[in-house]
UniProtKB/TrEMBL annotation:
Gene Ontology cellular component list: plasma membrane
Family annotation (Pfam families): LysE
Annotated GO MF terms: amino acid transmembrane transporter activity
Organism from which the protein derives: Paraburkholderia guartelaensis
UniProt key word Repeat: no
Bilayer topology: Multi-pass membrane protein
Name recorded for this polypeptide: LysE family translocator
């Protein structure tokens, strides 16, 4: 149907890939920790939009050309690594100051969070995190063709259908991750000391992922 083969196995494989932590998951958790559920959910949508770009590129042959170019792979790898390190450093250096006490009621009030980033900026950041990861490019060009019938006249439609299913499953899972991470973080919203270490931990993970991406090979 639609030039797709072994669809059931595709669903299982996508589920297992989604539940395996990676840069996208780390980014969503980081944004949820920094700004709450809403920021995490918007970031998840941005990442899904990035997958849409890869799906279109794969459907029309652009991903294969990019994967075949060592120069293009290196450029995207370096840009993506720098971006992840930048995000990580921002989290590590985020300041958390307790609100001065002004009476008994104010003494127990939660500390103000760091200035939130606009939702549009969060969406774009999630989008860039996904699009600038060359491993995602290689994943699409090596994984998706295995589920497209050889010689089918509907190859582009098959890629688009598989991509749509992949994005739907990823969005559901990533939204769940954002919700859980945001819920956990909400419990520590009035404890700047704990929040500071959460940000530093996630920020350090971002830096580590960036360095790992910078040294990645094809």
């Amino acid at each position: 149907m639609l030039g797709i083969t072994h669809f059931g196995f595709f669903l299982v494989a996508v589920f297992l890939l989604n539940v395996t932590p990676g840069p996208d998951t780390a980014y969503i958790v980081g944004r949820s920790v920094a700004q709450g559920r809403g920021a995490g959910l918007v970031s998840a949508l941005g990442i899904s939009a990035g997958c849409c770009v890869h799906t279109l590129a794969c459907a029309f042959g652009l991903t294969a050309l990019l994967a075949a170019s060592a120069t293009a792979f290196t450029v995207i790898k370096i840009v993506g690594a720098i971006y992840l390190v930048y995000l990580g450093v921002r989290l590590v250096l985020t300041k958390h100051e307790a609100r001065p006490a002004e009476g008994a009621a104010q003494a127990t009030a939660p500390a103000p969070a760091a200035a939130p980033r606009p939702l549009r900026q969060l969406f774009v950041s999630g989008f860039c995190t996904n699009v600038l990861n060359p491993k995602v490019v290689l994943f699409f060009v090596s994984f998706f063709p295995q589920f497209v019938t050889t010689g089918t006249e509907h190859k582009a439609l098959a890629f688009l259908t598989l991509g749509a299913v992949f994005m739907l499953m990823s969005t559901v899972w990533n939204s769940f991750v954002a919700w859980v991470a945001g819920s956990v973080t909400q419990r520590f919203s009035g404890k700047p000391g704990v929040k500071k270490w959460l940000d530093r931990t996630v920020g350090s993970a971002f830096v580590g992922l960036g360095l790992k991406l910078a040294t990645a090979t094809r």
